[in-house]
Amino acid sequence: MIKLVVFDLDNVIIDAEAIDEIGKLMGVEEKIMELTKKAMEGEMDFKESIEERVKLLKGAKVDDIKKLAQELPLMKGAEETIQHLREKGYKIATITGSFDIIADIIGKKLNLDYIICNKLHQKNGLLTGKVTGPLVKKTKYEVLQELLEDEGFSFDECVAVGDGANDISMIESAKLGIAFNAKPIVKEKADAIVEKKDLREIIPLIEELEETCEVSLEEVLDKKKEYEDKLSATLKEREEFNKKAKEKKELRDELNKKVKENLDLAIKFKDKRNEINKMVEENKRLRNETNKKIRKLKWSSTGRKRLKLEKEIKKIDNIIETQVLDMKKENELVNRVNDLRRELAKIREDEKTRKKALKLKRLSEKYHENVVKLSKEAQEYHEKMLEQFKKTDEIRAKADEAHEKFVKFMKLASKKHEESKKIMGKIKQVNIEIKRIKSRMDKVDAAKNHKRRILEKKKAEEIYKLFKDGKKLTKDELLLLQRYKIV
């Protein structure tokens, strides 16, 4: 976990090189800038460089320098970045080869926790051209090490941000070393590089480091396993719902097929009923027409009278044929026979009408029988039709129920499918995170090994100094010197 973030001051916290700006007050900025450039690019020893530059500032007014400090521009995003880091609970320090007159004012403005810088000597309000301080004799690595020891922190709990060659030692030793708008020699040694002149660009780098520290690879792999198990269960549920949906679809289609078959049969019964009803109506029509004809016929029931007339006519004909009658008597009998024959003819005409009426009555009765028979048959088909429609409705209700369940299971399967897509998205993100953590771990391991070698080499150099002063070396110390080819 990161506890301390250390910044260089010039060209990092402020968007300027303080000593160059002071040089402008004395008209020696070009000479100072040349010396500064050599120091920042590693072409000149920093101690020699700082002493030579400060000599050029002899006689500068301290008040003018303080006024200048108030006017120096902060780096873009400096205030926001330092405030953000403080809110996260980090301690903020500046370790700079710059000077107290400048650094104290900037540090106070930004509320920095630690300000470690050099001191410009002054007399009567003027600079003397002398400089002392921790960054004259010591490297930033050594100064940072002392700060960490005083506060009980370690290099693995520290982030260092710098731009010049004198920042390399602290950038290499920190958990995360950031080269900010830096010289090429610094970029080669840094863990991360920020090219843009905006200090806020370092925030995601520190947050990424913290995330890597907080979330271990094992935890992410466990999370992936959890998502994979959840995905497997979700896909299984989805397939189960799809299976049930398929079953209900097949049942629905089978029932709909039966609905059609039963409906066709019901319609067939209906058509047959309607066809018979037409026949019923036709027979009713014929029966009614026949009954009308019967009602129009008129006749008398003269069966006995006809027999009597026939007998009497036969008797008179016999008298006329067998007896000798006078003319008058014979004419009377002839007239009488004619009258009887006319009456008999009339009676016989009534008989024909009666027979015709009887024939029509039998025909009407036949039509009526047909009506009764066909009506019964039509009713049977009607009942069959109703029964078939009822059966069709029952099957359709089952088909509708099967369809509702099909839709329900399809929706559930679709929901599980969407859930599985989300889980697969999470697995994809976890895979990216795993890749990022592994990459970061590789970088961290490489950085740790690099920094370990730097620290060991520094330790070896210290041991060698002690050896030259007469210290007796242990076997391990001798091996360390040999490893770095110091002896």
Automatic annotation (TrEMBL):
Coiled-coil region: 206-296, 330-384
Catalytic residues identified in the record: D8 (nucleophile), D10 (proton donor)
Gene3D superfamilies in UniProt: HAD superfamily/HAD-like
Catalytic class of the enzyme: hydrolase
Key words, A-Z: Amino-acid biosynthesis, Coiled coil, Hydrolase, Magnesium, Metal-binding, Serine biosynthesis
GO biological process: L-serine biosynthetic process
Gene Ontology cellular-component annotations: cytoplasm
InterPro entries named among the record's database cross-references: DUF7121, HAD-like_SerB, HAD-like_sf, HAD_sf, PSP
Record-listed E.C. numbers: 3.1.3.3
GO molecular function term, any single one: magnesium ion binding
Pathway: Amino-acid biosynthesis; L-serine biosynthesis; L-serine from 3-phospho-D-glycerate: step 3/3
Cofactor(s) in the UniProt record: Mg(2+)
Family affiliation: Belongs to the HAD-like hydrolase superfamily. SerB family.
Name listed for the protein in its UniProt record: phosphoserine phosphatase
Organism of derivation: Methanothermobacter tenebrarum
